[in-house]
Write a structure and sequence with these properties.
The chain is mainly alpha-helical. It has helices at residues 3-23, 34-59, 63-73, 79-82, 84-87, 93-115, 118-138, and strands spanning 28-29, 139-140. The protein has one domain: Four Helix Bundle (Hemerythrin (Met), subunit A) (Up-down Bundle). The protein contains 7 helices and 2 strands; from the N terminus they run αβααααααβ.
């Protein structure tokens, strides 16, 4: 099966899931003060931009830059920059754990990318995005 066809099928499946999910959102609602909601959404948009920049660098065989982006903007060393200490007390334990897992996996990805093995790095990056998917599938703030 061609890559283009696989992407088309995946897009169709995800669109269908979105249509069904629109009827009733069963994710746990997490009440946050408005300012924290805004802050969290800004952080998540930056996380998404960072993952895109990582993928662009990996596609250009620049694993060192991908590693630097991952650690500085997603990894454990980025937690203070994101205000994680202030946000965590408002999150349910599962949400906090998913976020911590994502940050730890980002640091693991950075290590794998620095080793120069693209396949290992891609696998580690999928662990990062899996943590994102797990959290977004279970929790919402709006």
């Amino acid at each position: 099966m061609s890559t283009k066809r696989n992407i088309s099928l995946l897009t169709l499946m995800l669109s269908s899931c979105t249509l069904f999910a629109a009827d009733k959102d069963t994710r746990q609602m997490v009440e946050l003060p408005e300012m924290m909601q805004t802050h969290m959404m800004s952080n998540m948009r930056d996380h998404l931009v960072t993952i895109n920049e990582i993928l662009i660098n990996m596609a250009n065989n620049n694993l060192d830059k991908a590693a630097e982006l991952a650690e500085s903007r997603l990894g454990v060393s980025s937690l203070d920059k994101h205000g994680a200490g202030h946000m965590g007390k408002f999150m349910p334990e599962g949400m906090r754990k998913a976020g911590t897992t994502m940050h730890r996996q980002a640091s693991q990805f950075a290590l794998r990318a620095q080793e120069g093995d693209a396949v290992s790095a891609y696998k580690a990056l999928s662990d990062v995005t899996s943590a994102c998917v797990a959290c977004h599938s279970a929790y919402r703030i709006r």
